[in-house]
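Hi F.,

I've been meaning to write this up properly since the lab meeting, where we talked about keeping a consistent format for the predictions we share between groups. The idea is simple: the sequence comes first, exactly as it goes in, then the structure tokens exactly as they come out, then a line or two of notes. No screenshots and no reformatting. I'm using this chain as the first example so we have something concrete to point to.
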Amino acid sequence: MKFPLLRPTAVLFLLFGLMALRLPAQHVTGIGRIVPPAPTFADLFRVKPGDRVELDGTSLLAITDVRFNTASAAFFSRTDTQLVVTVPPDATIGPVSWYDRFGFISSTAANFQVAPRVTQFARNIPIPSTPADAIRGVPGNSILFTGANYADANDPGFQTSVFFQSALGGTVAGLVEFASGTTLQVQVPGAAVSGSMILSNPAGSVTTVGRFYLQPFITGFNPPQARVGDLVTVKGFSLLDATDASVGGQPAAILSVNSTNLVFRVPALDDSGLVSLTTPGGAFLTSSNLVLLPKLDSFTPVGGPAGTVVTLQGSGLAGTTAVRFGNTASIAVTNLDSTSVSAVVPAGAFTGPITVVTANGSSVSGNLFYVAPVVTDFSPTRARPGAIITVNGVNFTGVSAVEFTSGQAASFNVQATNRLTVLVPDDASNGPIRVTTPGGTAVSTISFQVIGTDPLILGFTPAFAGVGATVKITGENLAGATSVRFNGISTTSFVGVGGTNITVTVPEGATTGKLSVLTPIGTATSTADFLVGSSADLSVTGQINPPAPALGATVTVSYQLRNLGPLPVDGVTLAIGLPSGVDVLQATTSSGTLEQLGLGITVHPAAMPMNSLVTVALQVRLNRSARLDFVADASSDFPDAIPSNNTLTLSVTPGQPALSVALAGDGSLTLSWPVTAGFGLQSSTTMTGGWQNVTDVPTIAGGISSLKVIPSGTALYYRLRQGP
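Output, unedited:
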């Protein structure tokens, strides 16, 4: 483009140099920058390499060379009245001159001002020790730029400034210490950070190809806690061209970096560590650690029952404080090293992820640990092939197979972690059900019964009754029954319903035993006995041991309570009345509960089936010499066929303890008597009085007290005496 100011109408205003001698031949009437367009008049004479400058005049085709100071420009276009040239890369501040084939014609009176050019730069204060040291420094150092166009000798106001990247954003100018056309010395400002520098003068700006590096500074890193393999972003200043990063001394791979951010991948570490960066400007070590979080990568085995030892693999596992299987903590954790931990599967654990906890944090496994499944029950417990049953239990996650005894693998659906629905396969047979997961195989404790075509009694109610009572039998394939038998006694007094229920009356002569139903296809017999009768018979027996104790002795009073049948009973009570003058030392029962209140002990046994036995034992001390009666009485909520054997009285009359004397060869006497509470040894010189308590301590062994005495010249008498 052309500016109107450069047209002939402005010749007198724009002409800076006149042609000498050849003016009539080649006449330049105007000159100035046209690309890029100049916003002001002064900018017409400020250029940078690559700009285009237009010369207007006459007979311009004779011009063969246009120079910016000493550098020749290339012609962009030319006519006899207009020349357009491109500012050469090596243009320097000075006049523009034009030549014809005979030589110099003329030049501008004023200098064209050219944007700065940098051929090299290096720190010169202080003097660098190595080439690498020449491109780094700290605020206050000086940098010497070598190039061109830093000053215009004809324009004292012409200045070249140097701008550094700023820690505050944007740029900050350095202090120019001196400048010439080819050299420029600048002091690094306080807020400068690493990066390319911008040199700017009124003619334009240039950005250095190379960078000047300052000491890096880390303001923080995010996240402050990370796992091995995570990405961490370091924030700070002068991070450009970082060559090395490390955590706790372990090299970390740098993925990206700019002046204020550096991203690295956390290397394999044993523990938390300080972050270090190295750039061409220097190194920086943080004062705070990157906290190493635990990371659980894998574990073996993948499942098992409580008590299984599981080895966990990962990183950052040093100092593991807890391992949880689901929500249940293991009570046996061993920290093998920073990459492995062993833990024992705790009782009560459920299938779920494993959590490892350290002082720095926790990590949850991506895979589930399969705790061995457990089958608690299933319903119905009997079914035909093709029927759907529900299996209940725990840890049904990841079920891979459900099997019936002697049957093919069954089709199933997992409804929940504690429930399955299963299709009974065609070839299933009686037996337990097996459920398999990655954690193991669970086997039911009860057997599944396959319903076939044979008649079968499943149960009956009530469990006992007398003659003439009604009994309901439930079963399968009972249609067309011809007879019902009570322990071999047949009756036809029954009604069948749908092949699964029969209501029958207990016949005369029936006795306790199995029930049988006869059908055209076979006979079904109950597994349990039907009890015939309407009452039970409680019987109480007992004994006192020893049967003839001495006064103050300890005896055992035992009662045996039996149910002689035929019916079972509950609500049983055995009440034992105690005589005065005894101390109960201990009371036990083989069944139920026992309580003592005053001079009575009451025993409440559990339900007593026929022929069951309950034993009650009392240890008592006899403190009275009269006859002592212990009375036991049994009762229940059921009628008793023979109430006379429900009550038993046990009696005992304590005797005086006997004192025995043995004479030894040395004339000493050994006095012996049973260890009896309340009795002591006395001596006297006469038989009629003057009895004194013997204070010597006897020797006790095997329930016998013994005392060795040496009689004096005066005859001594000894006796046992109750009381103080």
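Notes:
The mean pLDDT is 90.
The radius of gyration is 58 Å.

If this format works for you, I'll send the rest the same way.

G.
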